[in-house]
Amino acid sequence: MSIPLPLFIALPLASAFLLPLCGKKFKGFASLAATVVIAVLLVMSILSFGRFDVYIVGRWTIPLGINLVLDGLSALMLATISTVSFTAMLFSNRYMEQYTSKNKYLSLFLLMVTGMNGVVLSGDIFNLFVFLEIASIASYALVGFGCEHEELEAAFKYMTLGTVASMFVLFGVGVVYGNTGSLNMAVISRYVAENGINTGLAFALALFTTGFGLKAALVPFHAWLPDAHPSAPAPISAMLSGVLIKALGIYSLSRVIFNVLGISVQISWVLIALGVLSMVIGVFLAVGQWDFKRLLAYHSISQMGYVILGIGMAALILSNGGNPAWASLALLGGLFHLMNHAVFKSLLFLTSGSVEMSTGTRQLKELGGLAERLPVTRSTCTIASAAIAGVPPFNGFWSKLILVIAAVQAGLYGLAAVTVLVSIVTLISFLKVQRYVFLGELPENLKSTAEHRGLMACAMILLAILCVFMGALVIYEPFRVVVLDNAVNALSDGFAYAGKVLSAQILTGQ
Amino acid sequence: MKGMTIIVKTIASWIKVLVFLFGIYIILFGHLTPGGGFAGGVILAGSYILLLLAFGKEYAEENLPISLASKLDCIAAFLFIALALCGFIYGAGFFFYNFIQQKFLVEYESAGELVSAGAIPLYNIFIGIKVAASLFLVTLVLSAFRLESQE
Q: Is B74 within 8 Å of A17 when comparing Cβ atoms?
């Protein structure tokens, strides 16, 4: 039996509005209910691998109504969102006891999940904008959840830039509607495939690149991220860095460029330039940071560069008429790195939360020698650091290796060299983290530090296990075909997306 | 002195009822005339904001306590989704399916009448309540903060 797609949106949305009604007496119940809802979403998203499904909301067929589309890329994003949100929810059960009004936190958390699920499932470009705003507004509130001066300032900065990004996207949607007469992505895609891209649509593409680039914090647009991500509570940092910038930024950008408005040589070079800038500038800014979470936030910018670089290289190879196999390899590398980054970066943010909760600080210079005090945090953090730096058995290695191979095969030797160089600088900065947090001398005031076990440790161990074994997704053929190849094909098919969605609608419609 | 002058208070106490009624009218006739749940909800919230401006924050809070407003907010949003899910159950698996129109009103010629269009007026009512409660809460929260320099 196939799971109806709107449940991915309706389930968290309905519970987000029910949970604030539980008073203080039922606080335990509210946490439990939220965890169960996220767990159900996780199971549903794993079951949705390998399906292609078009859902017509309200029985209105495509040019009239809104539709939801589940293809390989959406399934990959759904699974990533659910995995990270499940572990973040496990972690926050104990972590959020430090804050007041936990019910509101749970409600905002579920709203953010709703928004992200909606973005990756929507087949309608205006609907995508609406869900993008739901996720963004929930995240603005969550960044300022602590209500300290610094957090409110970061939230306000994030809100201002986020709103500018949304305005760009909305303006782009308007221009697309004016030029094609439709808001449905499949119909727009068919129009562009038949009539080619005109000046208006090219302008819309520029607007989308800016808007989604701001949401993804690619380098010229990254100013909000290093403030916003460290200020949020640790599980929310994990969600923001782990999946929010990917679902709202990378996913929407690649969907619009590949499937709706079409790839060209120019936009590929724009993507590659954004990717290389993000990788290099992000990582060099990260090395100098002394705030644990701020360092991680800069690394998010750098790692997003890898993803965009892979996608840009694939677009370049495809639009130059090169070998499609190497384009698929570049896309595979980019998308696999997206999944891997979600796992290891959320793990790193959770460990930073665990360190902060135990010691009360996240300044690297005030920490040290915590290896024996926080054994679970230490071991998981080491695994995640090795994964993000691309040390062989862990997941980050495989995706970076694939990206380097794809760059070499496409004849882009400079990009391959940059990829390797950035990886080395990443390694340096994570050696710094290991040295200053876990090794070295234990300061006097941290002698009595104790670790918080239970669900928090569970969440970290779960993600660490994923870090170790996710390499199997590329090595073991059946997994690769179901999880990654479907997603790669969804993007590299380009305009065939329109045909698939419209014909599936006729089959499932009336 | 709480609130504004006696002139403003007198006029506001007459007008608030009219504004409130007009909001209800906009919501209920949302499927027939321009307007609808959102516009009507804003007008409903407007009547409370008028009270807040004319009589001060305490008086407005007595009329619509924060806890009640936040409960209304959540319940209305939940009922909206619940109605959409009912469409899912009664409409052969189609979310947001207008099942009331298709099941109960399909033989009853009702276009242009107040009771028509199936589930759409219900959606309008829920949105209206939600928007009114949320906007009132937003205004109330904004009025609770003062700039540090003023104190």
A: yes
